[in-house]
C-alpha cells in the first residue's frame, strides 16, 4: 500500500462535496486526467448520496465513512454506511430501479458507478448497512510509477 486515508462525516447532503474534494485532493499525487477526475467525482457523489438518502433517510446525524487507498497507480475507495441496508442488491443495481421515485431519483446511480469504475462491489445487509467499493486505475500514474 502506497497511501491511505479515512474520512467520516455526518450524513448530510452538503457533506457530499466534502467527500468528493477530500478524495480528489488525496489522489492528486497520481496526476489523474480531467476525464478520470470527473469520473471519480461522479462515482463518489453517487455512492455518498446513496448512503445519505437511502441508507440513512437523510437523518442528518448518522455517520458515513469513506476510505481511500492508493496502490501503485490504482485508487480504491469504499463508502460505508450503517443504515437500513439493501434487501436485494442485484435488483438495486438494475438500471432505472429506485425506491425513491417521489424524490425524483432516476435509479441510475449504480449503473453510472459501474460504467466509470474498473471494478465495483456492493455489499449490504438489511438493518446493518451498505458498503460500496470501487477501484480505478489512473492512466497517467502508471507512467510516473515506472
UniProtKB/TrEMBL annotation:
Keywords: ATP-binding, Kinase, Nucleotide-binding, Serine/threonine-protein kinase, Sporulation, Transferase. It catalyses: L-threonyl-[protein] + ATP = O-phospho-L-threonyl-[protein] + ADP + H(+); L-seryl-[protein] + ATP = O-phospho-L-seryl-[protein] + ADP + H(+). The keyword ATP-binding applies. Pfam families: HATPase_c_2. GO terms for biological process: asexual sporulation; negative regulation of sporulation resulting in formation of a cellular spore; sporulation resulting in formation of a cellular spore. SUPFAM superfamilies: ATPase domain of HSP90 chaperone/DNA topoisomerase II/histidine kinase (SSF55874). It is an enzyme of class 2 (transferase). Gene3D superfamilies: Histidine kinase-like ATPase, C-terminal domain. Its EC number is 2.7.11.1. NCBIfam families: spIIAB. Belongs to the anti-sigma-factor family. Binds to sigma F and blocks its ability to form an RNA polymerase holoenzyme (E-sigma F). Phosphorylates SpoIIAA on a serine residue. This phosphorylation may enable SpoIIAA to act as an anti-anti-sigma factor that counteracts SpoIIAB and thus releases sigma F from inhibition. This is Anti-sigma F factor. It comes from Metasolibacillus meyeri.
